[in-house]
Structure formats: C-alpha cells, structure tokens
C-alpha cells in the first residue's frame, strides 16, 4: 500500500476543504484502518468546520467527516474485507475523519452492513437517521396514535423522522418546511399534512400548524431547526406535549412563554447523537437499515467524487434536502 492517499483537508475554519495528498494514518490498538467507500457531508461536519461549534474550534489542518462506509483493511478484531458503517469524532476531538481514501476508526464504532444495502444509502442514512429514530423513541417517547409534527422535514433528519413516525404508529404526521419541494416529498412519503414555515411571523406560523392539526392534540414535535419555528410549534403543543430539539438550522435561540410551558406541563428536551453509546447507534441503525432494505425508509441523496469536495461542501451548506455523498476513487 502507498504511504499517501487523497483526502479533503480543512486548512481554514469556515472555508471548504481542499482536495490534497495526505499521509495514510497508522493504526493503534483498538483501531481499524478502513478504505472509505462513501462519506456524507453532514450538518455536524459543517458546524465543526466553522470553528463556532460548542465543541470548540478544531485544530487545523484536519480531515472532516463524522461517519462513513468502508472496507476493513487492518484491525484487531474486525475481519479484513468486511464492509462496515462507522462513526468518528473528527471536528469534535483531535483526529481525522472519513472524507479521504482511508480512515482510522474505533473498532467499537463499526457496524457490519447487510449485502442488500448499498453503501451510499447506508452513508446517507447514518447519523441523520439515528438522530431521527432516537429522538422519536428514546427522547420523544412516541406512543401509537399520537400526532407528530416534524419541523425541517425537507432535511435529512426530517425526511427520516416523517417516515419513522409512520413506522412507529403515529396517528398523524405533519411535515413542516420552508421548501415547497421538500413538503411535497414528505407528503409522498407518508405525511398526512404539510405546513409552510416561511415568513417571520410566529403568530402566522402557529396558525398554520394549528390548522394542520385539524383540532387534534399535538403530542410530539421533532425539531432540527429551533428558532422561530420552534417557538410557533410550542404554542400549539398539547398539555404534557414534548418538543425534542436536534439542531438550530433556523436560529441559535428560541423564546418560550413561561405561562404556557408551566400551565401545559410541556417538556422541552435536548438531543445529541453524542449521548449515545456505540451499541445504541448500532441497534438503531440496524433497525433503520432493515426498513430501508424493505423500501420503507429512504432519503434524497447524490454521489459526488471526493475531488469535487469544495463544490459539494458549498452545495450542502446551501441546501439540506439532498444528502451529498463523497466517493473516493
């Protein structure tokens, strides 16, 4: 094996990575060297690379990529030649990530993939699907028959949340997004209603959400956007309703009226994949991939050569509706 590889290297915060030659990493105890087949560009990658995340600015230069799919080349326990999905901490802790021809991973982070799942689909679902799945179940405690609102339904997490809520037996699923095409996509994948989140009037957006509920209680909100949409949704949330926040695509802060939160016994809950063990991630993704293999769960995606990483990075930052998957040569 050559001592060098091609990689996407971030050399300045808040700028796209560069396609450069880089040294192949050397494996340590408990690690596996993986030849990367597919590496998605995720909102977490963009956030970490901005230098403004709550993890702190990552030391430069580094290779981004918090997850991917690859073939095990060397390991202590994993079998060489095995195809796996994996997660890693690039951008959150020192070390390089998946946007390269080769990547070092913790062996415990690897999940063997079934042959019927394509690598790009597994990569596209990955952590986004895990977040949607666990926000609905572990944090949101969704019960059959409940009404669910998914904010940011055009994004990767939102797309999966709409489908997963239906799989978990939600009574009604409402998809909300500023993206007209994203709302149409959500309706085609099982949402009962769609709400336009565009505009800057919290009163108007609250009215739209309430109308979509058709007089039925809103039990659970899955929220990857925060900001004004979260404020509007909280106003409609039923007594003892839950709002699970996953991200802040629409704003870093949201205002909730104390009287409403207290009188209705609302639960405003935070969620992060970083709170999960490797076992929890593996269990969730195994279930998700089983549904994906049966055609019950998918996501909009596009494969892009790794050498086009700078262009793909900017495209992903501009629109979250289609997950861009980097493919090393």
Quick gist of this model?
The protein is an alpha/beta fold and 329 residues long. Helix content is 32%, strand content 26%. Strand 1 (4-9) and strand 2 (18-23) form a beta hairpin.
Give a structural overview:
This protein has 329 residues and is an alpha/beta fold. The chain is 32% helix and 26% strand. The chain contains nine helices and 15 strands. It has helices at 43-50, 119-139, 156-167, 180-188, 202-213, 227-236, 258-263, 278-293, 309-318, and strands spanning 4-9, 18-23, 31-40, 67-74, 83-87, 102-106, 111-112, 147-150, 172-177, 193-196, 218-223, 237-245, 267-270, 301-305, 323-327. Helix 2 crosses helix 3 and helix 5 crosses helix 6. The longest helix is centred in the middle third of the chain and has 21 residues, at 119-139. The protein is globular, with a radius of gyration of 20 Å.
